[in-house]
Design a protein that fits this description.
- The structure is a single chain.
- This protein is of the alpha/beta class and 486 residues long.
- The protein has three domains: 7-141, Rossmann fold (3-Layer(aba) Sandwich), CATH 3.40.50; 163-384, Rossmann fold (3-Layer(aba) Sandwich); 389-485, GMP Synthetase, Chain A, domain 3, CATH 3.30.300.
- The chain has helices at 19-35, 52-64, 77-87, 100-108, 116-119, 163-176, 194-207, 219-227, 238-247, 269-279, 352-358, 398-405, 442-452, 479-485, and strands spanning 7-10, 16-18, 43-48, 67-72, 91-94, 112-113, 124-127, 143-149, 157-162, 184-187, 210-213, 233-236, 259-262, 283-288, 295-298, 312-313, 318-321, 335-340, 359-360, 364-373, 379-384, 389-391, 394-396, 411-420, 426-434, 461-464.
- A seven-stranded mixed β-sheet has the order 6-7-5-3-4-8-9, with helices on both faces.
- A hairpin with a 3-residue loop joins strand 19 (359-360) and strand 20.
- Helix 9 (238-247) packs across helix 10.
- It is globular, with a radius of gyration of 22 Å.
């Protein structure tokens, strides 16, 4: 490291952690984990919200050769227990000093105080009742972390994220965003998810830049961080920006902010225009999935898009529309996305059937997403394979309907799902969250959609909600909506 005294983390509530200080913490944590019996190939459950200890645990486990299983403390007790049972960790860490929710989970497992000289005051840990065996196969030394993702079915899948993928992406991501050691980025995306780990944390560490670490997104705090310490990089999911605009519609004053990025889900053109006006800089976009360590496509800084394309492939990424061996999808047409490259996961942990379905011969990964390529090679995400609705023999892509709903005055965000009918057809059902209670006339919205959409795309039902369900990282959760309309 060229400047070990440079600030790595700006902590919530004040104070900083330097690169040298974090390296010392990481080494102490590695030795502590080994003293508790953790071995290479063991899983270490880490429950918390963004804080320095989450970063410390991730790197300490990597030094030891153990696999972190990072969980956002806002998961329910049922979800934590399901992941604990599946991953079979050798021990669990609960960073309750900065997260009351982590403390609640810790009490379920009779956790004890962790060594304050290693983990700081007020944090907890618990050993496994029956110590599981470590992984010793060929993948044991290749896995950096397990990231659990529910996918479209709601059943948890544990993605084995490779070290090589994270390191490769850190380099190409920092280059694509032209990060330097003077940059300051905002880290409210959970450090237990691929967006937070790869795009936010790893790319920042790659160049020796700084992170403003926050347990969760708060519009007031973000605006304050623009002033002090002076954010230059802002990355988040679209719902984060929607909530910022709803809470503070008046644009902030001049700042150091030079790069704004939305990922994790599709970008709505109305939101893109609003954010660009709000901050006075282009809004960039990209495409990535948990099963690939970091983004696959990103828009170019030299040529900001006026549309909502995900941009162009990052170094090492190959993409094809349609399964390998099938005829090529016609230009401009939508098709299932398959990719390969250094970031492809090693598989789903303890799930060979799903792994076989996702990882195909030739190194291809079935993403489960649908997309089309523009004439210039830019990628547009059109939906999820399992999200697609078939109505009267026509394909309806929820993203297209949601984009139109989101242009209606008073709508904050929306989600569209399908509901099966007895004849095998599907109804289009739309949910929306208003900016303010009763600010949207549902009948007027229905008439608007009839003007803007083909008849088969118009929702059969439009349902207002106080709050559309989202994951802890801010992505819209459609499975609860599907269950609601079933």
């Amino acid at each position: 490291m060229e400047n070990p005294d440079a600030v790595l983390l700006h902590q919530e509530g004040g104070g900083t952690v330097t690169y040298a200080g974090m390296w010392e913490r990481v080494q102490r944590a590695r030795d502590w984990l080994a003293a508790q019996g953790a071995r290479p190939g063991d899983r270490v459950l880490v429950v918390g919200e963004n804080c320095p200890q989450m970063v410390q645990a991730l790197f300490a486990c990597s030094l030891l050769g153990a696999w972190t299983v990072g969980l956002n403390a806002r998961l329910s007790p049922r979800e934590v227990e399901a992941i604990r049972q599946h991953s079979q960790p050798a021990l669990a860490l609960y960073f309750s000093r900065t997260s009351e929710k982590a403390g609640e989970h810790a009490r379920q497992y009779a956790a004890r105080s962790a060594d304050e000289s290693v983990w700081g005051e007020g944090n907890l840990w618990s050993p496994a009742v029956e110590r599981p065996e470590p992984e010793t196969g060929s993948e044991a030394g290749e896995v950096a972390t397990l990231i659990y993702t529910s996918g479209t079915t709601g059943a948890p899948k544990a993605v084995m994220v490779p070290h090589r993928g994270l390191l490769h992406f850190a380099r190409v991501s920092s280059a694509s965003r032209r990060l330097t050691a003077t940059d300051v980025s905002y880290a409210a995306l959970p450090l237990s998810h691929i967006f937070g780990i790869a795009t936010v944390l790893m790319a920042t560490v790659q160049v020796g830049a700084s992170l403003v670490v926050r347990r969760r997104f708060d519009p007031e705090d973000l605006l304050q961080a623009l002033e002090t310490p002076g954010l230059s990089i802002l990355q988040g999911v679209p719902t984060m920006y929607s909530r910022l605009l709803a809470a503070h519609p008046v644009p902030p004053g001049p700042s150091r902010l030079r790069y704004v990025y939305a990922g994790g889900s599709a970008l709505d053109p109305t939101l893109k225009r609003q954010v660009e006006h709000y901050f006075g800089v282009p809004m960039h976009h990209g495409y990535g999935i948990t099963e690939y360590a970091g983004s696959l496509y990103v828009t170019s800084m030299d040529a900001p898009r006026t549309d909502c394309s995900a941009g162009f492939p990052l170094e090492g990424v190959e993409l094809r529309l349609g399964a390998p061996g099938d005829p090529a999808v016609a230009p401009g047409e939508s098709g299932p996305i398959f990719v390969r490259g250094p970031g492809v996961m090693l598989g789903y942990y303890r799930d060979p059937e799903r792994t076989r379905d996702a990882l195909l011969p030739g190194g291809w990964l079935c993403t489960g997403d649908l997309g089309r390529l523009d004439a210039d090679g830019a990628l547009f995400i059109t939906g999820r394979t399992k999200d697609m609705i078939i109505r009267s023999g026509f394909n309806v892509y929820p993203l297209e309907v949601e984009a139109v709903i989101n242009t209606f005055p008073g709508v904050k965000l929306s989600a569209v799902v399908g509901r099966s009918e007895d004849d095998g057809n599907e109804e289009v059902i739309a949910f929306f969250e208003p900016l303010k209670a009763d600010s949207v006339d549902v009948e007027a919205l229905r008439l608007y959609l009839r003007e803007q959409l083909a008849p088969y795309k118009v929702p059969a039902r439009i349902v207002p909600m106080d709050a559309i369900p989202t994951t802890v990282s801010g992505k819209i959760k459609k499975q609860p909506l599907r269950e609601l309309v079933a």
